[in-house]
Write a structure and sequence with these properties.
With about 325 residues, the protein is mainly beta. The protein has a single domain, classed as TolB, C-terminal domain (Neuraminidase), CATH 2.120.10. The chain has 1 helix and 24 strands. It starts with a helix and ends in a 7-residue tail after the last strand. The relative contact order is 0.12.
Length: about 325
């Protein structure tokens, strides 16, 4: 009888011990999920429609706004009497980096998309602008003339460890990151380059033949598609008289340089930004009332649709990198 009781107690202890181990493991797994890095996306994070950040004078000064691709749910997130411009999304869609002259000089700031938690990342009397957030959320590229020449600079997302990437090139502008970890696209003297921010390896992506170059040539705003197969940019290559830049695309190897828009509009096409699925590009251009507006072009059909209202000036759009495309 005693033997039977001891055996039962042994089984009960083993059962309780196993249950405790399973419970502890479940707690550890739960904690691990909750403590994942901020820029590591959950599967449900892509269920919303990817938004568009842009600049507008709708409230009588240039602020950073957010809207849906159809122009709905407009929201002013900076609401400051200064000039705020050139927004770029963090990869998780929670923050935006931009430049502002609110301290008397052009400097780089970040802000949460709900309009809170603004942080200044650069300082000084020199111009710091055109920021672009890296796909892993750890770095921000930007343009600065603090060395006496416009160069591409890199810093950590908190503003630390700022260094010059293109000190040996002139007039470096418009940095944008590749989602494929290939580096940063930018232009210097009408040549499109890619640079590795860690090794400083420089690759020429696109350069027109000398016999095609003309005075006043413009190549600007290069940006990778989400899958890395295409580059959108603006150029006045087809309009040598009015010098009006329009949208173009390139293959990743620098070939198939062709316009997306057949003829120039009233003003320059600016700041193209790809939709997450790569089928559309948002950009800004003038309308008949000479006010800059936000447009979306279908890359496959070439059809452009105006998104913002003619009642205000709207420009420099940036498509949220995560979420569903319209």
């Amino acid at each position: 009888m005693i033997s039977i009781i001891n055996t039962c107690e042994t089984y009960i202890l083993k059962f309780l011990t196993l249950t405790t181990i399973i419970f502890v493991c479940l707690i550890q797994i739960s904690c691990s999920d909750n403590n994942q890095p901020q820029n590591q996306l959950n599967e449900t994070d892509n269920n919303h429609t990817a938004r568009i950040a842009f600049v507008s004078d709708k409230d009588s000064n240039w602020d950073i706004w957010i809207m849906n691709p159809d122009g709905s749910e407009l929201k002013n997130i900076t609401e400051n009497p200064s000039l705020d411009s050139h927004p770029s999304w963090s990869p998780d869609g929670k923050n935006i980096v931009f430049y502002s002259d609110r301290d008397g000089n052009k400097n780089i700031y970040t802000i949460s998309t709900d309009g809170t938690n603004i942080k200044q990342l650069t300082s000084g009397s020199r111009s710091n602008h055109s920021p672009s957030w890296s796909p892993n959320g750890e770095k921000i590229a930007f343009v600065s003339n603090r060395s006496g020449e416009n160069c591409i600079w890199i810093m950590n997302a908190d503003g630390s460890n700022q260094y010059n990437l293109t000190k040996h090139l002139k007039s470096s502008r418009w940095p944008t990151w590749s989602n494929k970890k290939e580096g940063i696209l930018f232009t210097s003297e009408n040549v499109i380059y890619q640079i590795n921010p860690e090794t400083f390896e420089l690759t020429t992506i696109f350069k027109l033949n000398k016999d095609l170059v003309f005075t006043g040539l413009f190549l600007g705003w290069p940006v990778w598609s989400s899958n890395g197969n295409k580059i959108a940019l603006t150029s006045n290559f087809l309009d040598k008289q009015k010098m009006t830049p329009i949208l173009y695309t390139l293959n990743r190897d620098g070939k198939a340089f062709k316009p997306l828009i057949n003829s120039p509009g009233l003003g320059p096409d600016e700041r193209p930004s790809w939709s997450p699925d790569g089928n559309s590009i948002v950009y800004s251009s003038l309308t008949n009332n000479a006010k800059k507006q936000i447009w979306i072009i279908d890359v496959n059909t070439g059809v452009s649709t105006q998104v913002t209202s003619n009642n205000s000036m709207n420009g420099f759009p940036a498509w949220e990198p995560m979420g569903k495309s319209p």
